[in-house]
Automatic annotation (TrEMBL):
Gene3D superfamilies registered for this protein in UniProt: Tetratricopeptide repeat domain
TPR repeats by residue range: 960-993, 1004-1037, 1048-1081, 1180-1213, 1224-1257, 1268-1301, 1356-1389
Stored PROSITE patterns: TPR
Record organism: Branchiostoma floridae
Domain Protein-PII uridylyltransferase N-terminal: 407-502
Pfam families assigned: DUF294, TPR_10, TPR_12, TPR_8
Name of the molecule in the record: Uncharacterized protein LOC118428252
Gene: LOC118428252
GO molecular function ontology, one term from the record: [protein-PII] uridylyltransferase activity
C-alpha cells in the first residue's frame, strides 16, 4: 500500500490466504478456512491480472470445499461465517490502538510497530471489519509520517501520503474522511517545508519524461488587431466516445424485439412493429463499430413495414422510404442480396400499382446497375480531366513571387471552369434520361413542364457526387390537383431511381422511428448512417430543407411550401413579403436556376418573371440589399474567420462555401440575374463593376474552392468533406485501428501552396464584402472593390503559415513584416506580439521574450499618460509566459503580478474578470514550477472561483481549464488519485460544452494528463488507453497523417509508457514516428529541445535493448543539439545529463576509459552549475560513477578516493547518521574496492555498515536485493580471510534471500556463482558431499539459464571438480564419468586437436582415476596425452606444477606395472622440476 504497488498487495493477501488455508487444512480449523476465503476475496477485489485472478478463484473454491467438509451435515451456508470473527466491540479495538499509539512516540523507527499495525490491517480485511482496516492503515501512515518528519526522509512522506489516500478511499464515515484529509494536507506542508530548507536545487528530472498538457493560458493578443479565436470544428462523422464506452448489446433483448416486431407485423399492427424493429436496431447501433449483419436484418424488416404503409396509405414517400431502407441494408451485407434486390423490384411494382395507378412492369433488375455504371463513368471522366489539368497547368511549380505564377493560375482557372461546365452538362443529360425513363412508365404528363436545377447545378460548380436540388415549372393555367399529383408521382418515381443508385443516407429520408426531425426530444433523432455511401441523392426531407419539388411540410411556424409551380407563381418567392415569411434562403436558391429537362421555353419565361421582380423598382434594390445583409448575418462567423486553424477543414463549409456566398452577395448588390458563377464574374468584368485583375482573382478563388471540393470527394469516394490543410507524413497510408475506433487517413492536398493562394484572395475579399453591402447604392458608378483582392503582404503570409504550422515560412514572413512596418508603432507592436507568441510556443523562446519586451516598451510609450492600461497588462502577461517557458518562474511571477495589479486597478480588486482569472491561473502555474504546490493550488482555486462567478454554474471552457490545472498541481504533489478526480470533472464539463462524441483539443489535453497520472500510479495499461484516445482525437483534429507537435507529444507519451512496460521495441517505433514528425515541424536540421528529448528517448531505449552503438549514436546527436541550443561552452543541466548518459552507455558497452572521459566532463559541468564546493546529488552521482569505472579498470585507489568523496557529499546532503540508499551503495562499493586491494578486514567493515543500513531501510527480516548483495560480499571477504564457516553462513543467507526474491525455481547466473562459492568453501573444509551437492546445483542451474546443450568453460570446470570430489570419496567410476564429460565439453569448446591446459587437466584426472581402478593401460595413455599437451602449452623445457604432477603420476603407474626403470626416470624428472620451481621461489616447502 505504501509503495502504491497493487501487485505486491495482491500477492501478500494471497500468501496470507495460503497460510490460513494450510493451517485450516492441517488443524481442521473452520475459522482459519473462513479467514483464507476472506483474504482471497480481498485479493480478488484488488487484482487486475486475469491469470492471477483465475488462480485466486481456484484457491477460494478449494478453501470453500475444505470448509464444507468441516461443517456439520445440517449446515446450509457455504459462505465464510464472519460473525464469530468480528471484534467484540469498538471499545476493545480502541484499547488496542491506544496501546500501539503510545509506542508510536518512542518506537516509530522500529519495524515491530509496523508489523503490529499490519496485523491489524490483515485482521480487518479477513473479518470484513472496514473500521479496523481503515484505522490500521491510517496508523501505518502515522508511523511513516513520524519517520519522515524526524529523519527528513521524503520517501517516508510519500509512503505516508499513499497510505492516507488508501485509507481515504476505503473510509465511509464523514468524520474519518475529514481527519484523513487533514493528515494529507499536514503531510504536504511538511514536505513543502523540507523542500524549502533543503540545501539543494529542486530534484532533477528524469532523462525520459512523459509530457503533460500544461494548462497554461496563451499569450494575450494586442488590442490593436482583430484576432478571432480558434474555431474548433466537429467532424461530420462520429468518433469513438473517449471515456464512456457504449453498453454491450443485449442479444436477448435484440432477439425479443425482433420476435415481437415480427408478431406485430403479422397482426397488421404496423406502429408496434416499427417500434420493436427500431428498438432492436437501436440496441446494436454503434456508428463507430456497426454490427452490419444485425443492422441489415433490422433495416430489411423496417423496409417491409414501409411497403405495407405505402400499400395502405398510397403515399409515394412510404415506398421511397422503404427503398432507402432496403438499399441501406444492402450496403451492410453480402448475404441475401438477391432477396433484397427482389424486395426493391417489388417496392417499385407496388408504388406503380398503389400510388401511380399504373399497371406496368417495373424497370429491369439490371436497370439500377446500369445507372450506377453510368454515374461511375461520369466520375472517371472528371478524374481524368483533372489529371490532365495537373499535367498541363501547374502554377505551383513557380516560386510565389514569380510573375509567371499569376498567369499560370489564370490559365488553370479557365481549365477548371471548363471541367465544371462539362460535369454540369453530364449531370443534366443523366437526369434528363432518368426523367424520360420515368415518364415512359407513368405515361405522358398532363401539361408542359420543365425541371430546373438549383444550387451548384445552376451555378455550374456541381460535382459528380453532389445532391440533386431541383424544382418543377408547369404550364400556366394547368395548376390543378391532377397535374400536381402527376408531377408529385413523377418526382417520387425519379426519387426511387436515385435511391437505387445506393448513395442516399437514411437520415435524409426522415423516417420518424430513426430520425424524427419534428420532435422536440433530441433523443428521437438518433440514427447515424456511417455505412451507406453519401453521393448522388435527393436533397433531404429535413424541415429546413425544401430544394426538391416536394418542398417543405408544414411546421409550427411556417406553412407548407411546394416547388411545383407555374413560372409566375414560382417568381413570387422573390417578393419582399414572401421572402420575409419564408426566409431569404428560399428566394436566393430560386433566383439562380438551370434547365434540366422538359420545355426550355418555360425556363425562359420564369427568368423573365424573375427580372421583373428583381430589377423592377427601388423596392427591389432595397430587397436585394436586405437579402444580402441576411446572407452576411447568417455567415458572420465564416466572414470573420480569416486564416485556417490547422485543424481538419470541412471543405464544403470552410473552403467552397465562402466564394459562393461572396458572389451571391455581389449578384444581389449588383442585381445580376444569371445562374452560372462563371457567367456572373464575366458580367461583372464586362460591366466594369469589377476590374479585370479582380475578376481574374475571383475566378481563380472560385476555381480553387471548387477543385478542392471535387478532389476531396474523389479521394473520399463520396460527400465526405474532411480535408487536412497540413502536410502529409508519408510513414502511413492505410486505415489504422486505435482503441475500438477505426480512423482512415484524411485527404491531404497534393501541394499545400494551393491553400496559401486561396487565402491570399479569400482574406481581402472577406474584408471587402461588408463594404460592398454598405456602399450598395454607389456600386454602379464606382465599381465594387476599392482595393485589389489579392494580399501577399508578409503579414498575411506569416499568419497563414503560422496556422498551417510552417515554422520557417511563418518566422521569415513575420520578421519581414516587422521591417515593412517601419515606424508604424501600432502595427509593429501587433506583429511583435504575434511573432513572439508563435516563437514562445513553437521555437525560440529567448527571441520571443525580446519581442514581448519591445512590444511592452512601445505600449508604454503610446500610453505614457495611462500606465494602467489593458494593453500594457497584456504585454506583461505575455512576458510572464515567456519567462515561464524559459524556466525562470520567479521573473514570470514578477510579470504576472504587475499584470494582475494593472488589471485590478482597471477593473477593481474584487471584481471578477476573465483576464484577472487568467493572471491568477498563470501565477499558480509558476508557483507549481517553483515547487510550491500549496500556493499554486491557492491561486488556481481563486481563478476557478472567479471564473465560476463570471460564467455562473454553467459548463464553461475556462472553468474546465481551471479544473485541469488543479489536477496538474495535485499530480505534481504526488496525489495522482486527486489529480484524476479533477481531470474527470474537467473531462465531463468539456464533453458537456463540446459534445459527447466531439473531437476537441481540450478533451485531448485532459485525456493526455489522465494518462500521465495513471502512468505515475503504475497503471500503464490505463495510461496507454488514455494516451491513445488523446492521440485519436488529435489525429481527428489535425489529420491522421498530419505533422503537428500535439500529435508528436501524444506519440511520445505512448512510447514512454511502452518503455515503462519494458516493451522497448514498441517504444522505439513510437519515438521514431515522433522524431520524423518533429523534424517535419521544426525542420530537418533544426536544433530544438523537443527533438533532442526524442533522440534521448531513442538512445535510452536502444541502450535497454543492449544495442550500445545505436544508443551512443543517438546520445551523441543529443549532445551536439543541446550544445547548439544552449551554447557550445555553456554549463547546462541538459548537456550534463547527456554526458552522464554517454558515460553510462560506454561503461555498459565495456569501454571504461571512454566512460571515464564523459563522466569527468559531466563532473566538471555539474560543479560549474551548482558550485565547486556545493554538496549536490548530481555531483555525488558523478563521483560515484567515476569510482565504479576506476574500480573496473582495477585502479582501486582512485576508485576509493572517488567513492569516499561521493560518500562524504551524500552524508552532507542527507545527514551524517541518516539511513539512505545512496549512502548504503557508496559503502558497498568501498568494501568492494578494499577487497580488490586485498584488505579484506576493511572490506568486511564497509560491507557490515552497508548491511546494517540496508536492514534498517528495508526491515531486518525483509528479503531485498541490496541486503542479499551485502551478504554475498561478506561471504566472499570472509572466504578470503580464511574463515570458511563465516563465509558459508553469509553465502547461505544470501542464497536463501535471493530465492525468496526471485522465487524458489528461479535460475540466474548470480545464483550459479553462489553455488560455486559454497562448493569451493565446502571443498576447503573437506566436506566432499556438500561440495558435490552445490556443484551439481550450479551445473543444473547453468544449463537452465543457458540451455541444456550449452558448451561453456564454467560448466566444464564444475564437471571436472565433481570428478575430483568423487575420486576423493573413492568412487572412481563416477569420477571417470564426470572427467569424461568435462573432457568432451572442453574439446568441443577449444577444438579436438587443440593443446589447452583445461583439456590436459581433464586427461590427467582420467589417468589418475583409471590408475586407481587398476586399468593401467588406460591410465598411461591418458597421462601421456596430458603430459604431452602440458609441455605444448607451458613449453617443452618449462618447469610447471601441472607437469610435475603428471610426471609423478606416471612414475606411480609404471611402478605398479613393474617397470621400475621407467618409474625412476619419471620420478627423477618430477623431482628435478620441483627443485627448479623451489629455486625460483614458485614453490615453497
Amino acid at each position: 500500500m505504501a509503495d502504491m504497488d497493487r501487485f505486491v498487495e495482491v500477492e501478500v493477501l494471497k500468501t496470507l490466504g495460503d497460510v490460513n488455508l494450510e493451517k485450516g487444512r492441517l488443524y481442521k480449523d473452520a475459522a482459519k478456512l473462513d479467514r483464507a476465503m476472506m483474504l482471497y476475496s480481498s485479493a480478488l477485489l484488488r487484482c487486475e491480472d486475469a491469470d492471477v485472478g483465475e488462480s485466486l478463484e481456484n484457491r477460494y473454491r478449494h478453501a470453500e470445499k475444505l470448509r464444507q467438509g468441516k461443517t456439520t451435515a445440517t449446515s446450509i451456508k457455504n459462505e465464510p461465517s464472519r460473525t464469530a470473527n468480528k471484534m467484540p466491540s469498538i471499545a476493545m479495538m480502541a484499547e488496542k490502538f491506544k496501546h500501539l499509539d503510545r509506542r508510536l512516540t518512542v518506537d516509530f523507527d522500529k519495524d515491530s510497530l509496523l508489523i503490529d499495525y499490519t496485523k491489524l490491517v490483515v485482521e480487518g480485511i479477513a473479518n470484513e471489519d472496514g473500521m479496523l482496516e481503515v484505522e490500521a492503515i491510517k496508523s501505518l501512515g502515522d508511523v511513516y509520517l513520524k519517520r519522515g518528519t524526524e529523519t527528513k526522509d521524503t520517501p517516508c512522506l510519500t509512503k505516508a501520503t499513499a497510505l492516507y489516500n488508501t485509507a481515504l478511499a476505503r473510509c465511509e464515515g464523514v468524520q474519518g474522511r475529514v481527519v484523513l484529509i487533514h493528515r494529507l494536507l499536514y503531510t504536504a506542508r511538511i514536505r513543502q517545508d523540507m523542500k524549502k530548507n533543503a540545501n539543494r536545487v529542486p530534484k532533477r528530472r528524469r532523462q525520459q519524461q512523459q509530457q503533460g498538457d500544461v494548462p497554461r493560458d496563451f499569450p494575450f493578443t494586442s488590442a490593436y488587431t482583430d484576432v478571432v479565436g480558434q474555431q474548433f470544428m466537429s467532424p461530420s462523422a462520429y468518433i469513438a466516445s473517449q471515456t464512456v464506452k457504449p453498453p454491450a448489446p443485449d442479444d436477448r433483448s435484440y432477439e425479443d424485439n425482433l420476435t415481437a416486431g415480427a408478431r406485430a407485423l403479422a397482426d397488421g399492427n404496423l406502429d408496434r412493429a416499427e417500434e420493436k424493429f427500431a428498438s432492436a436496431l437501436r440496441l446494436i447501433h454503434d456508428p463507430n463499430k456497426p454490427d452490419r449483419g444485425k443492422e441489415a436484418e433490422c433495416l430489411c424488416r423496417l423496409g417491409d413495414i414501409y411497403v405495407q404503409r405505402g400499400k395502405t396509405t398510397k403515399e409515394g414517400r412510404k415506398f421511397t422510404q422503404a427503398a432507402s431502407l432496403y438499399n441501406a441494408a444492402m450496403a451492410r451485407t453480402d448475404t441475401d442480396t438477391d432477396k433484397i434486390k427482389q424486395s426493391l423490384q417489388d417496392t417499385e411494382q407496388w408504388f406503380l400499382q398503389h400510388t401511380a395507378n399504373v399497371q406496368s412492369e417495373p424497370s429491369p433488375s439490371d436497370s439500377a446497375m446500369s445507372h450506377q455504371m453510368r454515374l461511375e463513368d461520369m466520375r472517371a471522366r472528371a478524374k481524368s480531366q483533372l489529371e490532365a489539368i495537373d499535367q498541363q497547368h501547374n502554377p505551383y511549380q513557380y516560386d510565389e513571387d514569380d510573375p509567371k505564377m499569376l498567369a499560370a493560375e489564370a490559365e488553370r482557372a479557365e481549365a477548371v471552369k471548363a471541367l465544371f461546365k462539362n460535369i454540369a452538362k453530364d449531370r443534366q443529360t443523366f437526369i434528363q434520361d432518368l426523367v424520360d425513363e420515368c415518364i415512359a412508365t407513368l405515361g405522358p404528363p398532363p401539361c408542359k413542364y420543365a425541371f430546373i436545377g438549383l444550387g451548384s447545378q445552376a451555378t455550374e460548380l456541381v460535382t459528380p457526387y453532389s445532391d440533386l436540388e431541383f424544382a418543377i415549372l408547369i404550364e400556366e393555367g394547368e395548376d390543378d390537383d391532377d397535374t400536381r399529383r402527376y408531377f408529385l408521382n413523377l418526382t417520387h418515381y425519379l426519387h426511387l431511381k436515385v435511391i437505387n443508385l445506393g448513395e442516399t443516407i437514411l437520415p435524409a429520408m426522415a423516417i420518424p422511428s430513426l430520425n424524427d426531425f419534428y420532435s422536440e426530444d433530441p433523443d428521437k433523432d438518433w440514427f447515424f448512417d456511417s455505412v451507406t455511401p453519401r453521393g448522388f441523392s435527393f436533397d433531404g426531407f429535413m424541415p429546413w430543407a425544401c430544394k426538391t419539388p416536394f418542398g417543405r411540410d408544414k411546421t409550427k411556424t411556417k406553412q407548407s411550401v411546394s416547388l411545383i409551380q407555374p413560372p409566375a407563381k414560382m417568381a413570387e418567392f422573390q417578393e419582399l413579403e414572401v421572402s420575409l415569411t419564408e426566409g431569404y434562403h428560399l428566394s436566393d436558391i430560386l433566383r439562380r436556376v438551370a434547365f434540366l429537362a422538359g420545355e426550355k421555353a418555360l425556363v425562359n419565361k420564369y427568368r423573365k418573371n424573375l427580372n421583373k421582380v428583381v430589377t423592377s423598382d427601388l423596392l427591389s434594390h432595397f430587397q436585394s440589399r436586405l437579402s444580402a445583409m441576411g446572407i452576411l448575418s447568417e455567415n458572420r462567423e465564416m466572414m470573420t474567420t480569416y486564416e485556417p486553424t490547422g485543424q481538419l477543414l470541412n471543405v464544403k463549409k470552410d473552403i467552397y462555401r465562402f466564394p459562393g456566398v461572396a458572389i451571391e452577395i455581389l449578384v444581389l448588390c449588383c442585381q445580376i440575374n444569371l445562374a452560372s458563377t462563371w457567367a456572373v464574374i464575366d458580367r461583372l468584368r464586362e460591366t466594369g463593376q469589377i476590374q479585370r485583375e479582380n475578376a481574374t482573382h475571383l475566378t481563380v478563388l472560385t476555381s480553387i474552392s471548387a477543385e478542392l471540393r471535387l478532389r476531396t470527394y474523389m479521394a473520399n469516394k463520396g460527400q465526405k468533406d474532411s480535408l487536412s490543410p497540413l502536410d502529409e507524413i508519408k510513414h502511413q497510408t492505410k486505415t489504422q485501428k486505435v482503441s475500438d475506433t477505426t480512423l482512415k487517413s484524411e485527404f491531404h492536398i497534393p501541394d499545400t501552396q494551393i491553400l496559401y493562394r486561396y487565402y491570399y484572395r479569400a482574406i481581402p475579399l472577406k474584408k471587402c464584402i461588408p463594404e460592398v453591402i454598405q456602399d450598395g447604392s454607389q456600386l454602379q458608378s464606382r465599381g465594387v472593390f476599392k482595393t485589389t483582392i489579392f494580399d501577399v503582404s508578409n503579414e498575411c503570409r506569416g499568419r497563414i503559415a503560422k496556422n498551417l504550422f510552417n515554422s520557417s515560412k511563418c518566422i521569415h514572413h513575420f520578421e519581414a513584416a516587422l521591417k515593412d512596418a517601419g515606424t508604424d508603432m501600432i502595427s509593429r507592436s501587433v506583429l511583435l506580439v504575434e511573432l513572439g507568441g508563435y516563437l514562445a510556443l513553437h521555437g525560440d523562446v529567448t527571441k520571443a521574450k525580446s519581442y514581448f519586451e519591445e512590444a511592452l516598451m512601445i505600449h508604454k510609450g503610446i500610453h505614457i499618460d495611462n500606465t494602467a492600461n489593458p494593453v500594457i497588462a497584456g504585454s506583461l502577461h505575455n512576458l510572464g509566459i515567456a519567462w515561464g517557458i524559459l524556466c525562470d518562474p520567479k521573473k514570470a511571477i514578477s510579470c504576472f503580478e504587475q499584470s494582475l495589479t494593472i488589471l485590478q486597478c482597471i477593473f477593481g480588486v474584487s471584481t471578477p474578470h476573465p483576464d484577472i482569472a487568467s493572471a491568477l491561473a498563470n501565477l499558480g502555474f509558476c508557483w507549481r514550477d517553483l515547487g510550491d504546490e500549496g500556493k499554486a493550488i491557492s491561486y488556481i482555486e481563486q481563478s476557478l472561483m472567479m471564473r465560476k462567478t463570471v460564467y455562473g454554474d454553467t459548463a464553461h471552457e475556462h472553468i474546465a481549464k481551471s479544473l485541469t490545472a488543479l489536477g496538474f498541481c495535485w499530480s505534481s504533489l504526488g496525489d495522482e488519485k486527486k489529480a484524476i478526480s479533477y481531470y474527470e470533472q474537467s473531462l465531463t464539463m468539456s464533453k458537456t460544452i463540446y459534445g459527447q462524441n466531439t473531437v476537441h483539443p481540450d478533451i485531448a489535453a485532459v485525456l493526455n494528463n489522465m494518462g500521465l497520472s495513471y502512468s505515475n500510479l503504475g497503471n500503464q495499461q490505463k495510461a496507454v488507453s488514455c494516451y491513445e484516445q488523446s492521440l485519436m482525437i488529435k489525429k481527428a483534429i489535425y489529420g491522421e497523417t498530419a505533422r503537428h507537435q500535439d500529435i508528436a507529444m501524444s506519440l511520445n507519451n505512448v512510447g514512454l509508457t511502452w518503455s515503462k512496460l519494458d516493451n522497448y521495441e514498441k517504444a522505439i517505433s513510437y519515438f521514431e514516428k515522433v522524431l520524423k514528425m518533429q523534424k517535419a515541424v521544426y525542420g530537418e536540421k533544426a536544433a530544438h529541445l523537443e527533438i533532442a528529448t526524442t533522440l534521448n528517448n531513442l538512445g535510452f531505449s536502444w541502450r535497454k535493448l543492449g544495442d550500445y552503438r545505436k544508443s551512443i549514436s543517438y546520445y551523441e546527436q543529443v549532445k551536439v543539439m543541446r550544445k547548439r541550443i544552449f551554447g557550445e561552452n555553456t554549463a547546462h543541466p541538459k548537456i550534463a545529463e547527456t554526458l552522464d548518459s554517454l558515460g553510462s552507455c560506454w561503461a555498459e558497452f565495456g569501454d571504461a576509459k571512454k566512460a571515464i572521459g564523459y563522466f569527468e566532463q559531466s563532473l566538471t559541468m555539474w560543479k560549474t552549475i551548482h558550485g565547486d564546493k556545493t554538496a549536490h546529488l548530481e555531483i555525488a552521482g558523478a563521483l560515484y560513477n567515476l569510482g565504479s569505472l576506476w574500480s573496473k579498470l582495477d585502479d582501486q585507489k582512485k576508485a576509493i578516493d572517488y567513492f569516499e568523496q561521493s560518500l562524504r557529499m551524500t552524508k552532507t546532503i542527507y545527514g551524517e547518521n541518516t539511513v539512505h540508499t545512496l549512502i548504503s551503495g557508496a559503502l558497498e562499493q568501498l568494501g568492494s574496492s578494499w577487497s580488490k586491494l586485498g584488505d579484506h578486514k576493511k572490506a568486511v567493515s564497509y560491507f557490515n555498515q552497508s548491511l546494517r543500513m540496508a536492514k534498517t531501510m528495508y526491515g531486518d527480516n525483509t528479503a531485498h536485493a541490496d541486503i542479499a548483495k551485502s551478504l554475498h560480499n561478506l561471504g566472499s571477504s570472509w572466504s578470503k580471510l580464511g574463515n570458511q564457516k563465516k563465509a558459508i553462513s553469509y553465502f547461505e543467507q544470501s542464497l536463501t534471500m535471493e530465492k525468496t526474491i526471485r522465487g524458489p525455481n528461479a535460475a540466474d547466473k548470480d545464483l550459479v556463482r553462489i553455488f560455486d562459492a559454497l562448493g569451493t568453501l565446502w571443498s576447503e573444509l573437506d566436506d566432499e558431499r556438500k561440495e558435490i551437492s552445490y556443484y551439481e546445483q550450479a551445473i543444473e542451474m547453468w544449463k537452465t539459464v543457458k540451455g541444456e546443450d550449452t558448451r561453456n568453460p564454467g560448466i566444464a570446470g564444475r564437471l571436472h571438480n565433481l570428478g575430483l570430489c568423487w575420486s576423493n570419496l573413492g568412487d572412481e567410476k563416477k569420477a571417470i564419468s564426470y572427467f569424461q564429460q568435462s573432457l568432451a565439453m572442453r574439446k568441443t569448446i577449444y577444438g579436438d586437436t587443440t593443446a589447452h591446459a583445461d583439456i590436459a587437466l581433464s586427461l590427467f584426472g582420467l589417468g589418475s582415476s583409471w590408475s586407481k581402478l587398476g586399468d593401467h593401460r588406460k591410465a598411461i595413455r591418458n597421462l601421456n596425452q596430458s603430459l604431452t599437451m602440458m609441455k605444448k602449452v607451458y613449453g617443452d623445457n618449462t618447469a610447471h606444477l601441472h607437469i610435475t604432477a603428471a610426471l609423478h603420476e606416471l612414475a606411480l603407474v609404471w611402478n605398479k606395472v613393474g617397470y621400475q626403470d621407467k618409474a625412476v626416470e619419471y620420478e627423477e624428472q618430477s623431482q628435478r622440476m620441483v627443485m627448479s620451481l623451489y629455486a625460483r621461489g614458485t614453490l615453497r616447502f
